[in-house]
Amino acid sequence: MKKFLFIQAIIALLLVSCSKQNPLSPEYNNPPQKFTITMLEREADTQELEWTEAVDPEGDAVSYSIELDGKILFKNLPNRKYILTSLLPDKTYTGRIIASDKKGLSVSQSFNIEVYQGQILMGTGYYSLGLMGLTNTGTISWRVGEYARSVPAVSGDVIFSGQEKVYAIKAKTGDVLWTNDLVQKENAAVLYAQNKVFITSEKKISALSAATGATLWSIPLQTTVNPSISKNILYISYREHLYAIDVNTGAIKWDFIAPASLGMAVAKDGTLYVLSAAYYQIDGEGYMYALDANTGTLKWRSKFSGQISLTTAPFVGSPVLYGNKVYFVSHNDKGYDGQFRYVYAMDAATGTVVWKKTVALVVPASGLIVDESGIYLSASSLMKLDRVTGNVIWSIEGNFMNELVLTGDKIYVSTGSASLSLNVFDAGTGNRIGNQIRSTFPYGGSPVVLKSGKAYYPPSSGMNTVN
Prior knowledge:
With 467 residues, the chain is mostly beta strands. It has 1 helix and 39 strands.
């Protein structure tokens, strides 16, 4: 027994000695190194992410997980590019990508997903480049047709455009759903209402099926300005005539005749408002007419100073209704000459001028857009006026030669002439937001902005009148 214990003691001493001479080295492990995330295209319900490799110091394989608003959505992703789906367009998200090695050590990088800013539709005017769909960063997603001089109309995810023919286009992809050969490179105005597409072309007005493009009715009638629509009536101005047309049959309900050419009519609460020059020659006067929208009977007529342009710039001379006021912009008393224009606010019930303001606009390239906080217009300057007083809230000098579009808190407007740059401004402050949205193509029109399931149009579009 003693011999056995002695042997055990010797073995123990040998083991301790060996342990001291050759201690076991601990195995060290470091987490993967830091990486960066690039936010790619944001669509209404998706966000594409891409990130650089998170290199592991020990050379271990690295897998990735995605966390969104505190919840792990995906684990062990082998690739470094992913598209998040089922997002809400008006919601912001916070998240992070987690890079982990096989031993469980990890490093993470945070990201933010902003509210979807929408899609932008741009025509190219006389240039044979058609209608283009742009992302909110200015990337051209698709291009359809030729000579897109008019403002398109939108219903849901379908765009209706009058070019060398009438197109129905899928908004996201640019796929053509149907065409109709009514239009032949004319400045064709397009309206959508009640599952119909209304188009002016080749000295006639036509109604098409929005589903198939088939012609429902067509009447021989010209127009000098863009048509408008309210309830079941389509309003068409041709020179001194204003026609009311049944949208279902094409029958003319009534014809109002003024002393001179009429502009685009706008209806609200059963009253139709339309502007006219006093005479064909420029004499520095114009009229606002208020008509019964159903019968065409004159309710009142109000005379004002300042020439109305109806043919060369039809959106100057289109009234805007907001609250109990009607707003519009005119040339000065000398017509097209001079370095200023007039902006008016009239009482919608009586035609009484509430205020008249002189603004420094050399070229009246845009009509008005009005919201609760003010009045927006653009030409040689982009400006915002107080809706109650007409005083200038802010003004920005620049070559703003096309119509603006207001999308709640943002203004989209292009600058230049032959080759345009699209700009975005804060509607409250007038400050520019981000960089200019540019393209290599020459634009000839004004944008339509698609955002959160809604289309926002420039002032000249009759889609602003649909109710």
